[in-house]
Amino acid sequence: QLKLVESGGGLVRPGGSLRLSCGASGSLDWYSIAWFRQAPGKEREGLGCASDSDGGTYYADSVKGRFTISRDNAKNTAYLQMDSLRPEDTAVYYCHLGDSWGQGTRVTVSS
Q1: pLDDT digits over 35-49, tens only?
Q2: Beta carbons of 51 and 31 less than 8 angstroms apart
Q3: Are 38 and 103 in contact (CB under 8 A)?
Q4: How many angstroms separate the Cα of 32 from the Cα of each of 7, 49, 110?
Q5: Residues 49/96, Cβ–Cβ less than 8 Å
Q6: How far apart (Å, rounded) are the C-alpha atoms in residues 3 and 23?
C-alpha cells in the first residue's frame, strides 16, 4: 500500500492560486489519481480523477475549469493546480490512489 503525503496548502486570497502536491512512496504507474476535499461540517467531496485506464481526466462541476489534476510519474508525485479560488473552496484536501489516502492539507481562501 502506498504512503501518500500532501503538501502545498495554506492561506490564499479569493482569486488566487495554489498547487497541491501528493508525494507517493512508490510508483504511480497503473494508478488512477483522485482528489477530494472536506469542508468543516460537510461530507467529503470528490473533485476529480485522472484515470489510468483511459487516460482521461474528470472533474466535479464545482471545480471544472478552475482545477487541474496532473502527475509526474518520474517524481512519484501528483498535483492539483487550483486557480480562481473562492472562499467556498476552503477545506482540507486529500489525494487518493488505490487503497491509500494522504493525511490532508488545509486550504483557506479568505481576504
Answers
A1: 999 999 999 999 999
A2: no
A3: no
A4: 19, 7, 31
A5: no
A6: 8
The strand ranges marked E within the chain are 4-7, 10-12, 18-24, 33-38, 45-50, 57-59, 67-72, 77-82, 91-97, 100-101, 105-109
User: Residue written as cell 487518493?
Assistant: 96
Mean pLDDT calculated for residue range 23-36: 92
Asked if 5 and 94 count as a contact pair (C-beta separation under 8 A), the reply is: no
In the block, residue with C-alpha cell 479569493? 14
Q: How far apart are CA 103 and CA 101, in angstroms?
A: 7
Residue among 45, 29, 37, 46 at smallest CA distance from 98: 29
CA separation for the pair 33, 73 (Å, rounded): 11
> Measured between alpha carbons, how far is 96 from 57 in angstroms, rounded to an integer?
14
Instruction: Give me the mean pLDDT over the 68-76 stretch.
Output: 94
